[in-house]
Amino acid sequence: MPAPKPEAFKKLTAAEVALPSFAPVAEAGVDSTVFDFTSHRRAREALEFALGIEDLGYNVFVLGEERSGRMTATLRYLEQAMQTRPAPSDWVILNNFRHPHQPLPFRLPVGTGRHFRSRMEALVGEVTEALKRAFTGEDYQRQVRSRQEKLQEEINARLEEVQKRARAAGLEIVRTETGLTVMVPPPEDKDGDGKPDTDPQPPSPETEATAKRLLEELVEINRWAGQRQMELVGWIRELNQRIADHAIAGPVDSVLAEFGQIPQLGRWLTEMRADMTEQLGAFQMAMEGESKPGVMPPAQRYAVNLFVDHGTETHPKVVLEPNPTYENLFGRIEYRQAAGSLETDFTLIRPGALHQANDGGVLVVRAEALARDPAAWTFLKGALRDRSIQIEERYRAGSVPIAGAPRPEPIPLDLKLVIVGSPFWYYSVFSGDPEFQAYVKVKADIDPDMEATAGNIACYTGLLRDMMRQFDGVTLSPDAVDRLLGEAAREAGHRRKLTARFELIDDILVEAVRQLPAVRRKGAVLGHEAVEAAIAARHRRNARVEDRLQEAVTDGTVMIDVRGRVVGQINALVVRDLGDHAFGMPARVSARASAGREGVTNIERDVDLGGPIQQKGVMVLQGFLAGSFARDIPLSFTCSITFEQSYGGVEGDSASMAELIAILSDLADIPVRQDLAITGSVNQHGKTQAIGGAHHKVEGFFRTCVENGGLTGDQGVVLPRSNEQNLVLDPAVTAAIAEGRFHLWSVDSIEEAAELFLDTGWDEIRGRVETRLRAFNGVLTEARHKGI
Q1: Model pTM score
Q2: How many Å apart are CA 411 and CA 768, to the nearest integer?
Q3: Is the pLDDT assigned to residue 63 strictly greater than 90?
Q4: Cα separation of 389 and 411, whole Å?
Q5: What distance in Å separates the CA atoms of residue 397 and residue 378, rounded to the nearest whole number?
Q6: Non-local CB neighbours of 56 within 8 Å, separated by 6+ positions
Q7: H or E stretch including 570?
Q8: Using one digit for the tens of pLDDT, what is the confidence trace for 305-322?
Q9: How confident is the model at residue 186 (pLDDT cuts 50, 70, 90)?
Q10: Where are the beta strands (DSSP E) in 528-630?
Q11: Which end of the chain has fewer surrounding CB within 10 Å, N or C?
Q12: Which residues are CB-contacts of 270 (< 8 A; sequence separation ≥ 6)?
């Protein structure tokens, strides 16, 4: 039964492939945002959902393509969402009098932190002055002097009594370097010649016994005097504390009355009052301008570290941390030089981004930046899990610890984490973390494109006109808007869609305005021509590699024919994407068939230049050939296929239709038209399948034809019918199509494409291939019988 005749291929008109012109609609207005696009609606709803849930782990990953406004739109939405929420608290860090190495964080009502710090600074000065007045006053000096004099009188009286008894016994009490002692006085020198009148006589036993008793009494008096001195010191200390407490009562009570109602702070102020009465020595040194190692001056001991100041905020903060290292997220402890060494205290503790965004705010980080520091990500997950922020000195791990370095108490964590990045980071990096889904449960996914609905067009138009407000009164003409929307469709690669990468269109608008002379810019109307010129200028800036490759084709270095017919040779089309510029180029594919049993052999695969998808496409061709021509006899041929002059890797299956036509041409011995090029994938049943980069490929072959002898009127490109919707071509190409100098055809099957390229009906092509395959089979059968 003969194979059914394929449907006719379709020739596309210029109107079907030109830049689409979208019907004008009312603008969305000045309140339009990127999140008003339908492409961003899913992400906006996800953010709204996450912000409304306080449960653990409902943090967000916003994923979208580059230049889709994923960061700017997210920040703007979050800022608006925070407007209705109450302002966050201030946080201060204060000295822990009992455990100085564990400073205490305190939450204060918004705006209170700055005032509390000022009041504490003033309080230290007030207390210092009050103590100075109290301890330099006549009443205090009189009381202390009276007690000291009374004690001295008592000591002198007892010593005098012992002295009398000693003299009565012929002894004397004298003061030596070791204290008071009893000794026999030397003989007198009455004649004044410097010699005693009599020789010294040894003391009698009675005198020695008396001296011993008196010495014991002196020891007892000394012990008693020491005890009384200690009692006096204690009495003075108690007096000092009573006077100090009375002196500082007024200033401290004033602060306590103002801030004592704040939870936990009132207790700290009470402890501070008690501590001040015990730190009179430090206050004394401060009065005298002295300092002593290990003694904190009162201004430092009672200082307020205004850790987080939200005094000017009216709502929670949205904090973008561009470099999310551990220190930037969790804070750090600074050090200062002192006498050749490092020292620190609670006043040198600095906050991180987590503290700034805490109390109902949002911390935003870029995925790629967070991924650069896996340790920071690990600690961040721990903070989200425990809902607390603990400052640690990670950079000092393994080094000699510094005595007295503070380790502040953890601060409760209450915020939303929003990670922003491309799909690559979400699917390849973070989703591979088993804990990721536990702490980032919400995915805010931005579509790469959107339907060209009236709402999206209105939003696009409104955003474009909003963009113009920064350019000295430059306005945008309707035809310029239409051209920019057409470019948005071109970036989307779809005639009925617009790219969600709005910032790319913004860039064209900026470049178009900046090309206007400055003297003519104010009040100018930006038209279609200016936009077209900006697009052309960008292409020229980025197209150096494309120009060199086209030049290589023109001078014959790369062999591409755009005229004539050749057996087993066809022009396939490839796309080269350099990041800032993508373009299409023709690539010669050739096939050589012979008798054999290996079927289709892929040279690229044999030398490890073909990727897995390209090799899959070749195996699909083998399936089509086997299903079409080997139902009655074995598929008795070997056919090598290759990309000529390809010295790098080849990946993708978009050239599989070209490879199949080259094989059919060589098997049927029918030459292939070289004035045509083809792109498209094919399945095992011979049906065409869509590919990417269709408009780049068409424009690449068009340029090759123009620069290699000019257009003949017969040249063109064949592509899958399912790719018609993806054709958004450059005006130069559509003009040539409209004039009949260049052509486009869409096909549904390999049969249609083969008829175009081989200029022969499918039945004849099929018959000639079958004849050749039967001949190959006969050769192989005969050789097997001969034992060859």
Answers
A1: 0.83
A2: 82
A3: yes
A4: 5
A5: 16
A6: 384, 385, 387
A7: strand 569-577
A8: 999 999 999 999 999 999
A9: low
A10: 565-567, 569-577, 582-594, 599-602
A11: N
A12: 256
